[in-house]
Inverse folding.
């Protein structure tokens, strides 16, 4: 029996796209997917709304992008904005924390800022860095940076490469986007690691940091409308490129959460502004994708109107580039059933290429595909696996 194929089947049994095999289990929408793949291959800064109905494959497409992007050599971060995850889009500190937690680099299973910093450290030791590395580190003196905008990220990475820092603390601090006292961070990250560097950290050495006039402000992600939080996100992209990755791609799932789960209208307005910043602003130059359900833009506008926000510039909403996903057709679902059949055979070491299996599956798919459910792709997948399981149990594979 094949464990990997079995795990994939387990996942499909629940209607969840199997980790690591999303590309294989993707059918249909070739034109759409080609456009996306081309975008990833010819990097340009873009943001895109991915629009489709409930159960129509938004999360699947994000996972497809994640897999493709990692294969193409990008760093990727996946963030879900549901009520449970307590990530609010008006709070850029929470957003950057979530981005750090979801960060992945090619070939590394573990998610998080540790994998990212380890990658950068090892690339720099191997000399596998871009030409701006010397400006980033001030020729490895690490006393200030001409390029890194967030002093916190610079200090964290500097401490990380020193090999003397408490890496758990750095990880926890960035994953939580705060929660530590400036005096403790100063002691642990700056003073304790200083011995590894010839020169002291010089905050006023960098023009970029001229607004950080006190020690406390260096570690503050909230002041000045969360400016340092934005800078962290930009720096992650800069550092990804500097360490020979192709950049950072951020994937936001369940983005309509900003309509339903932010109740305060002022907070919601900030969340909308942050969305526009990703699309039209220059804080972040990497790519970002936002999964939304149909009617998102109308719901956002409606919300503002019912709250009497007449002075608001609504035109931004109409200018958001949107990628509308067409639903899968029966022929696509048949193709998908075929792929599941192959995997089921591998998983349980059986020959599924028989007429009985073929006929049964065809029947199941025709029936499942014609249900009026919005969620019919997931339903079909579950029915196909159920049918194969049943045939296996009844020993009717042959
Ligand atoms: N192009 C595709 N090829 C193969 N399977 C797909 C495709 N698109 C979606 N699926 C499958 O359909 C099911 C539903 O997709 P998914 O969970 O991505 O939908 P969603 O739009 O995110 O739903 P929700 O609104 O519930 O979040 C999943 O099992 C997914 O793997
Ligand atoms: Mg989803």
């Amino acid at each position: 029996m094949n464990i990997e194929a079995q795990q994939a089947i387990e996942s499909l049994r629940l209607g969840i796209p199997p980790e690591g095999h999303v590309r294989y289990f993707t059918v249909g929408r070739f034109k759409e997917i080609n456009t996306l793949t081309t975008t990833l291959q010819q990097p340009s800064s873009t943001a895109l709304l991915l629009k489709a109905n409930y159960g129509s494959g938004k999360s699947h497409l994000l996972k497809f992008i994640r897999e493709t992007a990692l294969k193409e050599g990008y760093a990727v971060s996946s963030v879900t904005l549901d009520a449970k995850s307590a990530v609010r889009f008006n709070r850029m500190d929470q957003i950057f924390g979530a981005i750090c937690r979801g960060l992945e680099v090619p070939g590394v299973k573990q998610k998080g800022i540790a994998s990212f910093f380890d990658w950068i450290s090892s690339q720099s030791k191997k000399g596998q860095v871009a030409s701006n590395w010397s400006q980033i580190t001030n020729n490895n003196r690490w006393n200030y940076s001409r390029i890194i905008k967030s002093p916190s990220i610079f200090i964290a990475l500097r401490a990380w490469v020193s090999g003397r820092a408490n890496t758990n603390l750095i990880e926890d601090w960035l994953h939580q986007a705060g929660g530590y006292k400036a005096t403790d961070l100063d002691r642990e990250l700056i003073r304790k690691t200083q011995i590894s560097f010839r020169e002291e950290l010089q905050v006023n050495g960098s023009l970029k940091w001229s607004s950080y006039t006190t020690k406390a402000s260096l570690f503050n992600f909230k002041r000045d409308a969360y400016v340092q939080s934005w800078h962290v996100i930009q720096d992650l992209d800069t550092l990804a490129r500097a360490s020979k990755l192709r950049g950072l791609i951020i994937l936001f799932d369940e983005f309509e959460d900003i309509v339903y789960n932010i109740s305060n209208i002022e907070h919601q307005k900030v969340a909308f502004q942050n969305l526009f910043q990703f699309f039209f602003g220059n804080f972040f130059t990497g790519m970002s994708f936002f999964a939304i359900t149909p009617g998102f833009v109308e719901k956002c506008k409606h919300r503002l109107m019912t709250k009497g926000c007449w002075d608001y510039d609504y035109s931004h909403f109409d200018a958001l580039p949107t990628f509308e996903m067409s639903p899968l057709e029966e022929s696509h679902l048949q193709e998908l059933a075929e792929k599941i059949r192959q995997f089921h055979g591998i998983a349980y070491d059986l020959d599924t290429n028989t007429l009985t299996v073929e006929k049964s599956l065809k029947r199941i798919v025709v029936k499942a595909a014609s249900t009026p459910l919005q969620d019919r792709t997931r339903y079909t997948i579950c029915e196909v696996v159920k049918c194969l399981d049943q045939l296996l149990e009844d020993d009717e594979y042959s």
Notes: The mean pLDDT is 92.
